[in-house]
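Hey L., structure's done. Input below.
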Amino acid sequence: MRRRKKRAQQEEEAKVDVTSLLDIIFIMLIFFIVTTSFVKESGFLVKKSTTDKPSNKKATTIMVHIDQHGIVYFNNKAVDIIRLPARIEYFIANNPTEHILLRPHKDTSYEQVVAVLDQIKPFKRLKISIGLYQP
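Output:
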């Protein structure tokens, strides 16, 4: 009996040609980059103070309170809502100020707060802050 000779030729291992796979991957990558829409989210900018030192000039703040009964106070003095712009204008003429603080009571109606804001609105250079009035 003759021994079987081991095959002189060894079977080659199965190989996968990856060059075509890489081409497909790059084509898909280019496709997704081109078809993707880049959306810029909208927002608002916050202006930060440029100076770290407090200013030497004394700037006062206008205080407007609204109590739970709807009575408007300008710097702790009761005032009619119609006369409020005149009081603000007189105060600005005599005092350097850029801020106004509106402090409604927690039981004040929204209509009353909006009415006071409407009276303050013509003064464009005033920065309005809103807080909560607690007697």
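The longest strand covers residues 61-66. The radius of gyration is 37 Å.

-- N.
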